[in-house]
Amino acid sequence: MNWSGAAVFTRNFTNCSFNRDLTAIFGCSAAHGSLIFSHDMEEKIPYLDLPAQIRSVRKELDAAIARTLDNCSFCLGPDVTQFEKDFARFVGAEHCSGFNSGTSALHVALLLLGVGRDDEVITTPFTFVATSWAISYVGAKPVYVDIDDATFNLDPKLIERAITRRTKAVMPVHLYGHPFDVDPILAICRKHKLPLVEDTAQAHGAKYKGKTVGTFGEISCYSFYPGKNLGACGEGGALVTNNAAFDKRARSLREHGSTVRYYHDEVGYNYRMEGIQGATLGVKLKHLKKWTEERRRVAHRYHELLAGTPLQLPREAAWGESAYHLYVVRHARRDDLKKHLDDNGVGCALHYPLPLHLQKCYAELGHKAGDFPVAEKAARECLSLPIYPELTDKQIQRVVDVIKDFFRK
Ligand SMILES: Cc1ncc(COP(=O)(O)O)c(C=O)c1O
């Protein structure tokens, strides 16, 4: 095993700079380009403590990466194939193909469904922008429907009136790890013969009525961005389906439209998962169930300790079991509270400060403030608190104390 070679790659583990922008996102030490807070700031609670997660599985990751360096399977390869099998089993699906991001998996999902120019796809304005990118990439139009105030997810009651003869798919998101209300949405899809695409980028292992999300629709797409519940040591994504023909074509589209080398059946993409990411995801997948339980422990502790404060807390719907990718509280004075947390060394974040219909990139859709009032209010009020498996009871208590201090003042 070539450990000196592995050391070059795994040096990144020390600072967890798997993506150049993580430092800005998670509020860590910019000087080191790292997520680790410097020693004189040890009391601070980072919004996300990726280094703690990496430390907990470091030996396994080192061995997996060294194996990839030995076999030189850098694009797809045996570790990706094994991960695809294991992840399909985890979701309870027939097929899983590894991608280089969740965004590319979503793009291919819409290609598989034949969505194209001038078509419409119904989706949520309150999500990470990549959900809408996939629609734009195929030349279609995102048609937004407002969200349900309690779960932040697409409101099933509003979908039907948005359907036109151009509608080609419905693409809700299991936002923050909480499942959307699958049954009424599926009923509308069946009635109008529309395929359902689940954006499962934030909901690895979340459950709807006891069943893991990811196989309710024709296709579901996962992200393995490093900060996700199951995160690669770099970029990664997956397309999951029970449809063998979709799976076969997805594998071709991710590899330049080719199944036989240098023969190209259609215009394709370079969307392959890297071998090293297959190897690292294979390691982390083994811990995902335990990590999800730990996230749920943190969420329940917050529920207990924050009850009685003026905050609106996230609640699981009767039919849902959240994977708690995020723990998002709400308050009208959200910006002041965020500043108070920042000033007191508690990392927090906004998901998302501006709904998609009001983003500059979608100005041509012609929306205005007030079009989706529930999403707009959520964008003004939501605040994501630190949540990760490694968060200790002591740290949770400190987050809560700082919040209570804000309301006392
Ligand atoms: C809801 C949602 N959809 C899609 C994506 C895109 O995934 P990726 O960043 O892997 O391209 C993300 C990632 O942040 C996401 O949160």
Report on the architecture of this protein:
With 409 residues, the chain is α/β, with parallel strands linked by helices. Helix content is 39%, strand content 11%. The protein is built from 13 helices and 12 strands. The protein has helices at 3-15, 22-26, 50-56, 58-71, 78-91, 102-112, 130-137, 182-191, 244-253, 275-306, 334-343, 373-381, 393-408, and strands spanning 95-99, 120-123, 141-144, 167-171, 197-199, 207-208, 211-212, 219-223, 237-241, 320-321, 327-330, 382-385. The strands form 4 sheets. It has a 4-stranded mixed beta sheet with strand order 1-9-8-5. A 3-stranded parallel beta sheet has the order 3-2-4, with helices on one face. Helix 4 packs antiparallel against helix 10, helix 5 runs parallel beside helix 10 (275-306) and helix 6 packs across helix 7 (130-137). The longest helix is centred in the C-terminal third of the chain and has 32 residues, at 275-306. Residues 1-5 and 27-42 have low confidence and may be disordered. The protein binds pyridoxal-5'-phosphate. Residues 101-103, 127-128, 130-131, 173, 199, 201-202, 223, 225, 237 line the site of pyridoxal-5'-phosphate (PLP).
The level of helicity is 25-40%
Task: Report on the biggest sheet.
Answer: 4 strands, mixed
Strand content: 5-15%
Unreliable segments (pLDDT under 50, ≥5 consecutive)? 1-5, 27-42
Principal-axes geometry comes out as: globular
Radius of gyration: 21 Å
